[in-house]
Amino acid sequence: MQRVRFFARVAGLAVVVLVGVGACALDPQTEGAGGTTPAPVGLTEGASGASAPPTPERSATSPSAQPSRTATPKPSRSPSATDKPKPRPSRSAGCPQGEHQRAVESYLSRLGGFGTLTVDGTQSAADCTAIKKFQIRYGISPASGRAGPTTYDVAKRLAGTDVSRCRAGSRLTFCVDLTRQTVWAMRGGRVVLGPTVTRTGMSGYATPAGTYSVGGRNPREWSNPYEVWLPYWQQFNGGIGFHETTTYLHNGAIGSHGCVNLLHRDAVRLWELGSIGTRVVVIGRRPGT
After folding, report:
1. Which of 47-56, 131-140, 163-172, 176-185 has the lowest mean pLDDT?
2. How far apart are the first and last CA of the chain?
3. Is residue 70 one of the residues assigned to a domain?
4. C-alpha distance from residue 8 to each of 2, 19, 21 (Å)
5. What total of structural domains would you count in the chain?
6. Whether residue 189 sits in one domain with residue 267
């Protein structure tokens, strides 16, 4: 009887051990049994956010079945991401290329003062630096070095401004080209400021062309009808004058109520140059007014 009890205990212990091993093997969270693995952190740019399909080197049917790296893939197998050729590195890492690259390179080369550019329509480190410098100078945001629509528009207007159209003579003259929305100052046939960008009167408030003179100045003028401060105010035609803009200058959907809006640095410089009696010549007409 003792021998029978001994064998019964041994058989019971064997059953317990086998049941425990089976429970671990049927864990529903293990790979291959319907479970998922977390997506990797730090997906490359352009990824959709879902984890990428496993590459051939990682998707073996069993842990010991490792495919050869030199093996030829079967015709029915779709190529993986690792089979595709890698894109050629950009000549200017981290600096995006815009749709107006070549034109902006050409305009900035014509304007000068922003560095050496290669007019080939391909972004380079030198091109990026020059375009950023241009964007910072003329208040274009963001100053990313990308030759986008605003950068193209500003560069084209500045490069197309003919300063000789302003009949300045020998005295200091502030010149406004309404057509190209640019401003510059001349004395004795020489440009002493600009050309630079401006935004003049919107539809219904068009800035009138003509010849005027500065009649009033105030470093910080208060506008009664519009209840806004006008920094570096220089009046030249009734309630119309030069002043620093209080909004983003390159928002073409809006405009002034006739005044000539300027970037801060240009408003300051025009204030330093001007005085009561300074001649003002306004030519052209703003498109859409």
Report:
1. 47-56
2. 115
3. no
4. 10, 17, 21
5. 2
6. yes
Query: What angle do helix axes 101-111 and 125-137 make, rounded to 10 degrees?
Result: 70
Which domain does 137 fall in, by range? 101-159
Active site residue 100: no
155 & 169 share domain: no
Q: Please state the pTM of the whole predicted model.
A: 0.68
Poorest-pLDDT segment among 130-139, 220-229, 278-287: 220-229
Burial tier of 192 (Cβ tally within 10 Å: 0-12, 13-18, 19+): middle
Name the nearest CA neighbour of 205 among 158, 258, 281. Answer: 258
Quote the Cα angle for 95-137-280, to 5°: 150
Residue 151 is encoded by which pair of tokens?
């950068």
Using the predicted structure, report yes or no on whether residue 212 has a pLDDT greater than 90: yes
Residue 183, φ and ψ in degrees, nearest 5: -135, 145
**Residue 87, token pair as written in the block:** 């894109």
pLDDT above 60 (res 255): yes
Residues 6+ away with beta carbon under 8 Å from 43: 49, 52
Q: Which of 95, 128, 175, 243 is catalytic?
A: 243
Is 264 among the catalytic positions? no
Closest listed residue to residue 228, CA positions, set 214, 215, 247, 211: 247
The more confidently predicted of residues 115 and 75 is: 115
